[in-house]
Amino acid sequence: MLGTQVASDLDLDTVNSVVPLQTKWGKEYFRIGLTDITADTQEIKRKQLPIMALRLEPTVCKSIVKTLETLNNKTTHVDDALENTDNRVSESVSQILWKPTHFGAFLNKSPYAMNALILWRTIILPAFAVLAPLIAVVIPFFLLRFMNPDIQLSTDEYMTRVRHVLLQQITIPHFLRSRHPDDRLGFVFESLFIGLTLAMFISSIWSQINNAIHTRAIWFDLEERGDHIQHMYSVAKETIKQLKTLSPKAQRAAVKLIDSGEAAILGCKELDGLDGVATFGCVWNNSETVKILKVWLSQLDCYSAIASLDGICFPTIRKTVGIKLTDVHHPFVKGCISNNLITESHSILTGPNRGGKSTYCKSVGLAVVTAQTWGFAWATRMSFSPFKTVVTALEPTGLLGSLSTFEAEIEFAKSVLATEGLPAFVMMDEIFHSTNAGDGLEASRVFMSQLYEKSDIISIISTHYKDLAESFGGVATAIQMDATVGEEDRLIYSYKVTPGVSDKSSVVEILKERGLLPSAHPAPIARGQIIEERLPPEAETQ
């Protein structure tokens, strides 16, 4: 189980930005995977195997990455087809395809039926609407002229008769009709009415043409989306072929990945030989098989991306509770100084501000999370016992109008002491720093004395209170972010973790840099002096 603050403390939502994932699906799958922590050693090993197989054969891994890269700009279109929940989109699509529940839905995946339908609706019907009036006028004339040559009928006479017939079909109001042949005003009104009727007729024809154009646009959109789904299908088949070029040993390691991929491809067998629209129609009827294929491709993207990373290792499992990390570093920090950690119980970390405490804590925390979710860590070597619970408080904040930051820290401490899922990993940065030094120190002692009585808990607590490291020296290992005093009394940060308790402070240095302290102020003050100056008299006697 992950604590409620772990994702924000370790920036889990953005870790995928430093992993060379090729698709939006892979990025989301990796992000979600970071919260799916497991303490099952077999599950961790199962996740490691395909990554290790791909890492052993970088040529195959690179070819898979290159193939997946072609999906990068197509995932959105595929998602639109799979997650078709917008009613407006459904209404547009249903102008061409039958709804999945309709008895004619089986025709959606027939290229012949779909092409015949679009030909009828966008070519034949509009053409008939345009040509029908012309046919109705022209064909009778030729039939009369050529089938009955004895009938002498000029074009003018024929048009006069056509006009007469049309007038019979058009109901002209009585008051608009011409009274006699010389009634010019009546003739004008009559002509205007006929013209209006013809305009409405032409408008109906134009409406059919517009509908045909709109339907054709929907058709092309469906075809494009279907083509993207076909490309996704072909990418899956190609990557399976590439996975099968792995050595026999690597294939055995990746056997579950290969088997699940073949099963997903087999489930999409209906897509073989379909054009774009028929492919979309097939998915419109049932998208579950393509969704399974999408998940498999997302998984493959994650495995191949992790296998391509530099500076990672595959943690080994130990039977006793503890962690051993060699050269652990944070991927977000360019040129990050790597550090080590060996612990089977509790550690108290001290060091000056900007000395690297937070980065070190985040590096260790991220190593634990990635080891128990994806089976790797940004380190040279790692061995550990998986934890059932991982909780952190690196950046505790209060709740507006409810809890102060100090109260939020107290609530976190309370939840840690109530943890039932053991073994557990606990990490707290700047313990109880949100109140005055005396109260913070006392609260820290109360919490840590109870925490250190518990078994099967690994903890790292960073603090500026060096008294804590001295008070709990018998049950917790004191480690520090090493720093030395250089020229002009400026601190030189090594960003390396070493045994011991730090007595360095960067407060004076930072105050000078920010212009809040004259440069003539005395040299850096040891941390113990700062605490002693800040403690109230009653705290000194305790």
UniProtKB/TrEMBL annotation:
SUPFAM superfamilies from the UniProt entry: P-loop containing nucleoside triphosphate hydrolases
Alphabetized Pfam families for the sequence: MutS_V
GO molecular function, one term: ATP-dependent DNA damage sensor activity
SMART domains: MUTSac (SM00534)
One of the protein's GO biological processes: mismatch repair
InterPro entries found in the cross-reference section: DNA_mismatch_repair_MutS_C, MutS, P-loop_NTPase
Any one GO CC term of the record: cytosol
Chain segments annotated as coiled-coil in the UniProt record: none
Keywords (A to Z) from UniProt: ATP-binding, DNA-binding, Membrane, Nucleotide-binding, Transmembrane, Transmembrane helix
Bilayer-crossing regions: 118-144, 185-206
Domain DNA mismatch repair proteins mutS family residues, every copy: 344-533
Stated name of the protein: DNA mismatch repair proteins mutS family domain-containing protein
Native organism: viral metagenome
